[in-house]
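Milestone M4 deliverable, item 7.
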Amino acid sequence: MTRTLAFQLQLVQGDRVAHTHRVVRHSVQIGRLPANDLVINDPMVSKHHAVVWRDGDTLQVRDLGSRNGTLLNGERLQGTATVNPGDRIQLGPDTVLMVQAEEVAGSHAPAPIYLLEDLASGVCVPIGSDRFPIRPAEEGEEPATLLVFENGEVWVGHGTEDRPLEVDEPFEVAGRKLCLREGDALAGATASPVSERYPYALVATLDGATGPEAALRDQRADRVHRVLAANRAILLYLLARKWASDNESGLKGSDLGWVADSEVLTGIWGRGARDENKLHVLVYRLRSEVKGAGFDPWFVEKRRRYIRARLLDARVE
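Output delivered:
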């Protein structure tokens, strides 16, 4: 049986372990801003401090031009360095990442298993799908949805707004007080994607009759919605183009269609655009529009620093 290493970054602040972050498939950007994959609340840590990523059965680390630098086992980083289990990545006088690894069966590290705890009752329910509905506390309130990504991120969506969650940090949504917990193999099934959840086809162009436009089709219900607002149509064009390119390259499932926020900002507002709030507002308006047309707004997926459309087919013209 094939075995591989599953890496974790154990965040040690002062004399306590504050958080443990799995390194699954994608790079882990570390810093003080909420847009990072691993957010560290320490004024000595830069907004975007360092990045760690897998390279086979090793980890690599690079400083991102941080103000105070990054130390690997006490030595200041210059360029990229290989990180081994047991190494210490120091981001400030009081913040250290301890690198841990264990052998696991299979070609990929196991996805986390999550539970949702109702803090009022103490009941924990295993999350067994990448879309997990949360019933509202009172009739008339809108339900919420947990959005579980294969890289370990969990977001909560309510209406057409979403935000990331951290394990063991209580949150309130739909009138309920809840907390995301991490379980073990006995707690329930791993959250798995349902590929047929979004039977949508997307056709987009920058050169329609009145400018950029996109057509979203629900192939199961034979329903079509045309998006004519320029920036929303351009966003869908960029997502459709990436989906089609990845699909042609043979990418499948959870790796298909992700576009970096920076690329989307440049594609819509031009080089030098960095206002992530503009993208947040644009995604909100697009989701609101398609929801009003009878489509599930969560086919537009947003995680830290990336965005994609979950589709069955896409093309650009």
